[in-house]
Design a protein that fits this description.
The complex is a heterodimer. By secondary structure, chain A is mostly helical. Chain A has helices at 2-12, 27-39, 43-63, 69-93, 96-101, 104-108, 114-145, 150-176, 180-198, 207-219, 230-253. In chain B, the strands form three sheets. In chain B, strands 6-7-8-3-9-10 form a six-stranded mixed β-sheet, sandwiched between helices. In chain B, strands 2-1-4-5 form a four-stranded antiparallel β-sheet, covered by helices on one side. The chains are: A mainly alpha, B alpha/beta.
């Protein structure tokens, strides 16, 4: 026993050598999540919507006569379809897939605190959403109005913000419910898509509007149909992100396994 | 040293009581958590590992409460029953990643050592998706051992293993127990526990039915009346011979064969072969009629 204890003590003597980021992010969790998410067949699905976005933009660039199509198409299709759906699929799978198949236990049966687990999963989701959502949005904007145009840059900045807030929301949903995709779709269709267009106050709690508000602060384009100021959009985006991630970490701390069939 | 301590622990789901007022302690060595399916073993293991909150009672592992306390995993290794692991990783990558999550000074060396213990060195560079069930179990054990924990919890570690893999896992757990670790494993198979464990905790219907030395409890189990169905070339002749034996309490001719109620399991099974041979009776089938673990446990509970 004494030999074993001394081995254990020696094995852990390197605890102080961990990276300064280990308090916030966990590199192992981040890398594992990126590999797991990209390895699944569903990763192919991530590419479908951005390919359509960029392809249709190129087609419209060649054929459309109206000068207002870039903000209309990229603001509506890009911001209300491509970005939220990409974030929904990625955000609910980075943690939700492991919770569903039970492999999360291997991660949680370690001393890693739950907040870094959530933040690392969230960071992986943001990285992937930027790759499959925000960058294609910029490419589509660049095809439509030129690579340095205010619209292309504005759309990209707004898409970055949307990647962050949407993923915070969807990662939280995946911890709270095992029907995260259905609940997320309801949020997107009913709250943002329907109520957001009918009731003004709803826009204050609409990630789509945060992204458009931030995008419009750079692009200054009325065709984006932004209804929030930059300050409100940024402030609300930060609040929603922080609350969602803190709640997700709290729920993950109480993660329970099913017991015997009773 | 008492590593695991449960004090009047209960767990219920709505109106259903899964674990009912259990008090027990476990120290170094191998302890088997034995009981039929649905008895509450997994619920108990999950509560000990901090993956389920007790509805009532106190529970400590290595001196600290386990619920919402990931720090216990510095001293605890868990081998869950579910087969899901990161199948896209190789065995070595999986164990090394676990070592890194434990913030070990030299994760590769720790992983190498743990993989050696489970004798997976040769196959460590294969993806886990290509592993057999037994290999997956062993790599999960390596991941649970990588930080040299005081306590190892295993939920049904022998499920799905072939006999050779079972023996290997039993030897492994036995060695770990002899090194001073607290090994707690659950099983619904009596023979697994018999071979591996000196101490058992028998769980029936969410309650602790028996606790302590396996041999003493096993004697209690084997001394209960046993019912067998015997089919032979001459059931009537065999029946008349059997009823004269002290180890046999009752004999009945049934359409399925001869139903024999024996008071002593060992004596009856030993005498039966000689009895049939002496009388020239051909023994065709011998089936225990009440050998299900549930019936054994029911008897234990009643006694």
């Amino acid at each position: 026993m004494s030999h074993r204890n001394s081995t254990a003590a020696a094995a852990r003597s390197g605890k102080g050598a961990v990276s300064p980021m280990s308090g916030v992010l966990n590199g192992v969790v981040l890398r594992l999540t990126l590999r797991a998410t990209m390895g699944r067949k569903r990763a192919l699905i991530f590419a479908i919507a951005p390919v359509i976005l960029v392809g249709v933009s190129a087609l419209l660039r060649l054929t459309a006569n109206s000068p207002s199509w870039p903000p209309e198409f990229l603001g509506v299709f890009g911001y209300t379809v491509v970005l939220p759906l990409t974030a929904l699929i990625i955000g609910t799978s980075v943690l939700g897939a492991e919770i569903d198949d039970g492999s999360i236990v291997h991660l949680l049966a370690t001393p890693v605190r739950r907040l870094p687990v959530v933040l690392s999963k969230f960071t992986a989701a943001v990285i992937l959403t930027v790759v499959f959502g925000a960058i294609p949005e910029y490419l589509a904007g660049a095809i439509a109005t030129g690579p340095a145009s205010k619209l292309a840059v504005g759309l990209f900045v707004g898409a970055l913000a949307a990647s962050v807030v949407y993923n915070a929301l969807f990662v939280m949903l995946s911890v709270v419910t095992n029907r995260a995709i259905a609940v997320g779709l309801l949020y997107l269709l009913v709250w943002e898509g329907l109520l957001g267009n009918l009731v003004g106050g709803v826009r204050l709690l609409s990630v789509d509007q945060y992204a458009l508000g931030i995008s419009n602060s750079v692009a200054h384009n009325a065709s984006l149909h932004s209804h929030l100021t930059l300050g409100t959009a940024v402030g609300m985006g930060i609040v929603v992100t922080c609350v969602a991630l803190a709640f997700a970490a709290r729920r993950l701390s109480s993660f329970s396994l099913k017991g015997d069939a009773v | 040293m008492t590593a695991i301590e449960l004090s009047n622990v209960s767990r219920w789901y709505g109106n259903v009581v899964a674990v009912n007022d259990i008090t027990m302690t476990m120290g170094p060595g191998v302890t088997g958590l034995l009981g039929p399916n649905g008895a509450g073993k997994t619920t108990i293991l999950h509560m000990i590992a901090g993956f389920l909150e007790p509805s009532r009672g106190g529970l400590t592992v290595a001196g600290a409460p386990s619920w919402r306390n990931p720090e216990i995993f510095r001293k605890v290794g868990l081998v869950p029953e579910r087969d899901s692991v990161y199948a896209f990783l190789t065995g070595a990558e999986f164990v090394t990643a676990t070592a890194k999550l434990h913030e070990l000074a030299d994760p590769r060396a720790a992983a190498r050592r743990a993989i050696e213990i489970v004798e997976m060195t040769e196959t460590q560079d294969r993806k886990i998706s290509t592993y057999s069930k037994g290999m997956r179990q062993r790599i999960k054990v390596a991941a649970a051992l990588v930080h040299d924990p005081e306590v190892i919890l295993l939920d049904e570690p022998f499920n799905g293993m072939d006999p050779r893999q079972r023996l290997h896992m039993m030897d492994l757990l036995h060695q770990q127990g002899q090194q001073g670790r607290v090994i707690l494993f659950s099983s619904h198979i009596l023979e697994e526990v018999e071979r591996l464990s000196g101490t058992i905790q028998v769980i029936v219907g969410g309650r602790l039915a028996a606790s302590g030395d396996f041999r003493a409890i096993r004697r209690l189990m084997t001394s209960r009346p046993h019912v067998f169905i015997v089919r032979s070339s001459d059931d009537r002749l065999l029946g008349s011979a059997l009823i004269g034996r002290p180890a046999v309490n009752a004999v009945e001719l049934t359409p399925r064969g001869l139903q024999v109620r024996a008071s002593d399991y060992g004596t009856f099974t030993r005498e039966l072969a000689g009895l049939t041979r002496d009388r020239g009776i051909r023994l065709r089938e011998l089936l225990p009629a009440d050998e299900s673990l549930e019936s054994v446990f029911a008897y234990l509970l009643a006694s």
